[in-house]
Write a structure and sequence with these properties.
With about 400 residues, the chain is of the alpha/beta class. It has 2 domains: about 15-180, Rossmann fold, CATH 3.40.50.1970; about 185-385, Up-down Bundle (Dehydroquinate synthase-like, alpha domain), CATH 1.20.1090.10. It is built from 16 helices and 8 strands. Helix 7 (about 185-205) runs antiparallel to helix 8, helix 7 (about 185-205) runs parallel beside helix 9 (about 235-255) and helix 11 (about 275-295) runs antiparallel to helix 13. About 50% of the residues are buried. Mean pLDDT is about 90; it is low at about 1-10.
Length: about 400
C-alpha cells in the first residue's frame, strides 16, 4: 500500500436514501459549479438514470464525460483520464458508477497535479502534496464496494495491484441514492453484494477492528443477510435499498480497518482469470472463515490474542445465523450458488498447481497482515487446491 503526505482533516458529507441525488443541485450551487468532469461506466450511467433526476440535474451544467471500461483500473486507464482532465479547468469531479469508476475518479484528483507521475509514485513512492484539486462527488450505482466512503483506491501497474491510501482520496460528498441501483443487472447485484458482505465480515475479524468499525460491520452483515438474495433474485426496491445501506456501512467499516485475506487473494483471480471483484473475494471467504477459526497463540496476528479472534468468529457466526464456522462456510457457499455465482475454481480456469502458484505469486501481502491468523504459502496452496476439488 502506498500513501502520500496530506492534511487529514478533510470532512465527508454523506447523503443516503431515495431522492438524495437531488443534493447534487445544492452541491453545484455551493461550489458555483459550471464545468464538471464526469467519470462514468460505459452502460451503468445510462441505465441508472431511468429512476432518478440525474440527467435533468446534469443538464444545468457543462460536463466532460469520461467513460471507464474494463473490470479493473490500470495505469493506462488513469493516464488516459488524466490527459482529458488536463485539457480544461473543472469546478467539480463527479463519479457515477461502481467501485472501479469511483476509484478512477479518486485517482484522477489524486494525481491531478502536473508534477505528479503515476508510475514513479507507485513504484518508488515519491511523495507530493495535493493542492488546488476540485471537490469530488461519488454516486455509486452498485451496492458493494463502499468506495464512496473510503480513502483507498485500487490501480494496476504491469498487471500488479497497488492500493493507494490517503485521506485526500476520500470524496467530499457521497450520495448513496438506492434509485441508482434499481436497474443494476442481477449478475452485478450478486457480485457487488458478496463484496459488501465479505468486507463487513473481514472488517469484523480484522486485526485493526475497533468498537466503531464493528458497529458498522454488524449492521452491514445483518442487512446483507436479510436483503442480498432478494436483491439479486427479485430486484425489489426494498432489497436494493437495504443492500445500498449494507454496502455503505461496510465501506465505513473497512475505511477504519482495511480488508484481509479474501481480498488479498481476490486480485489475481480478477487479473489472471477475469473474475469480477466481488465474486473473486467471495470465492475464498468461506474457506478462510474455517482457517481463521482454527487460530492459536502460535499463529495469531491479532495482538488481542487467539481467544479474542475465536470470540470474534463466534460472533460473526451468530450474525450469519450459523452455529459454527463450518456451518458458516457451507451457508456462504450455498448463498453464492443460489445467486448464480460459481464456487468451483476449476470452472473459472484454475485447473492445476501451476495456476494456483501463479495466483499465490501475486497475492497482496499487506492485506494478509490484517488477517487475524497467519497464512503461509502452504496454507494458501491448500485452500486454493481444495476449492479446485483437490487437483493434484
Amino acid at each position: 500500500m502506498v500513501s502520500m503526505e496530506i492534511d487529514d482533516s478533510k470532512p465527508l458529507n454523506i447523503f443516503f436514501g431515495p431522492g438524495t441525488v437531488d443534493q447534487l443541485t445544492n452541491i453545484f450551487n455551493r461550489h458555483h459549479a459550471k464545468n464538471v468532469f464526469l467519470v462514468t461506466g460505459t452502460q451503468s450511467f445510462d441505465s441508472c438514470t431511468a429512476d432518478s433526476n440525474l440527467t435533468s440535474i446534469l443538464s444545468g451544467v457543462k460536463f466532460n464525460r469520461h467513460s471507464h471500461q474494463g473490470s479493473y483500473t490500470s495505469t493506462e486507464d488513469l493516464e488516459s483520464a488524466l490527459s482529458v482532465f488536463g485539457t480544461d479547468e473543472f469546478d467539480l469531479i463527479i463519479a457515477v458508477g461502481g467501485g472501479r469508476v469511483i476509484d478512477l475518479a479518486k485517482l484522477v484528483r489524486f494525481f491531478s497535479n502536473p508534477e505528479s507521475n503515476v508510475r514513479d509514485y507507485l513504484k518508488n513512492q515519491i511523495p507530493f502534496r495535493l493542492t488546488g484539486a476540485p471537490p469530488l462527488v461519488a454516486l455509486p450505482t452498485t451496492a458493494g464496494s463502499g468506495s464512496e466512503v473510503t480513502q483507498f483506491a485500487v490501480i494496476y501497474l504491469d498487471n500488479l495491484k497497488y492500493s493507494v491510501s490517503d485521506r485526500s482520496l476520500l470524496p467530499d460528498y457521497a450520495i448513496v441514492d438506492p434509485a441508482l441501483t434499481f436497474n443494476m443487472p442481477a449478475t452485478v447485484a450478486a457480485s457487488s453484494g458478496m463484496d459488501a458482505l465479505s468486507q463487513a465480515i473481514e472488517s469484523y475479524w480484522s486485526t485493526r477492528s475497533n468498537t466503531e468499525s464493528r458497529g458498522y460491520s454488524r449492521e452491514s452483515i445483518l442487512l446483507a443477510m436479510q436483503f442480498l438474495k432478494e436483491s439479486v433474485l427479485e430486484g425489489s426496491r426494498e432489497a436494493r435499498e437495504g443492500m445500498a445501506k449494507a454496502a455503505l456501512l461496510a465501506g465505513k467499516a473497512i475505511n477504519i480497518t482495511t480488508t484481509t485475506a479474501p481480498h488479498a487473494i481476490s486480485y489475481p483471480l480478477t487479473t489472471i482469470h477475469g473474475v469480477p471483484h466481488g465474486h473473486a473475494v467471495a470465492l475464498t471467504l468461506g474457506a478462510l472463515f474455517v482457517h481463521n477459526a482454527g487460530v492459536d497463540e502460535d499463529d495469531v496476528n491479532d495482538a488481542r490474542g487467539a481467544a479474542y479472534v475465536k470470540k470474534s468468529i463466534s460472533e460473526i457466526n451468530e450474525l450469519l445465523g450459523c452455529p459454527s464456522d463450518i456451518a458458516s462456510r457451507n451457508m456462504l457457499r450455498e448463498l453464492m450458488q443460489s445467486i448464480g455465482l460459481e464456487t468451483d475454481l476449476r470452472k473459472i480456469g484454475v485447473s492445476n498447481r501451476a495456476d494456483v502458484d501463479a495466483i499465490i505469486e501475486q497475492i497482496n501481502v499487506e492485506r494478509l497482515r490484517n488477517n487475524p491468523r497467519d497464512l503461509t504459502r502452504d496454507d494458501l496452496q491448500e485452500i486454493l487446491l481444495e476449492l479446485c476439488g483437490g487437483i493434484s
